[in-house]
Structure formats: structure tokens, C-alpha cells
Amino acid sequence: MAESSVSMANLETSFQKFAAHGDSKATGKEMNGKNFSKLCKDCNIINGKGVTSTDIDIIFSKVKAKSARVITFEQFNQALIELAPKRFKGKSKEEALQEIYGLIVGKEPANVGVTKVTKTGGVDRLTDTSKYTGAHKERFDESGKGKGKTGREDPANTSGYVGSYKGSGTYEDKVKKA
Fold first, then answer.
1. What percent of the chain shows pLDDT beyond 90?
2. Rounded distance, CA 93 to CA 122, Å?
3. In terms of CB atoms within 10 Å, which end of the chain has fewer, N or C?
């Protein structure tokens, strides 16, 4: 293959970011089918006409090893070589490959649909710890931060006195007087 205008190191960086996306144990050396599909969607390789998600799955299955569930960077390149003519019809293989590299380089996995905290209507009222009453009030300090276990459980009183007894600690004084 001729020396490309797009740096392979940059392409590999994008590959690693997508390969490790969504899996804390992933090394970034191998990419699974789900992440390959995500890369193709996020980088606009899937355009609905020439390339569909089905095409992506078929090409992924084609380039991976028979029993493997992941592809390496080399297999990823092979998949791009297969995808390029489908995505950029009418261009030479080399031109199409450069175009597809251009779509991928510098991209990172997009976190579309990440849940954000809402502060509308009743949510504000329900999550304002300063308005809590009763037993719930004991679970938070003045700043609204939870006290953890001490706010949920009553520690055992091992003083030997009943909880509401007012004369606790006065036994020694009474014994000395007698």
C-alpha cells in the first residue's frame, strides 16, 4: 500500500479509543463488534445508502478470525479497505481509503443519550434535604450531605442506663453519700 497522507498513528489512536469504549477492562488493542459498529456510526461511515449497519456486521465477521469475537488493528485496516469502495462509490480504492481514514482520524466515542440530572418541578422539592422531617432529617448534616451509616442506624447505648433516664452517671455520687 502506498504511503498514506493520513498518519497511521492517528488512525490507531482513534481505533484504541473506540476499542476501549464502554469496557473498563479493555486494553484498546482489540475491538469488539459493538464498538466497531459504534465507530462506523459516530464517524459517519454508515450513511444509510451505500453502507448500512448490516454491511458493517458482515465485514466485521469477514475480517475477524473464525473463533474470535474481536478484531486487531490490522484486521480493522482490512475492514476499512473493504468498506471504502462501498462508502465512496466512483473513487479509486486509494482515494476512497484516504476519505474513510479522514472520517475516522481525530474522532472519539460520542456519549449520546447520557442521562443528565434534572431539576424540574417536584424533583427540586424532593431532593432538598433542608426540608426533610422526622427520621429522614437525621440522615443528613446541615450542608445536606448524607451521614452514611450513622444517619441510618442507632448506635447501641452500652452505658447501662435506660435511654430516657435523666440521672445517668449519678450512681457513684449516690453510693458515696450512703
1. 13
2. 58
3. C
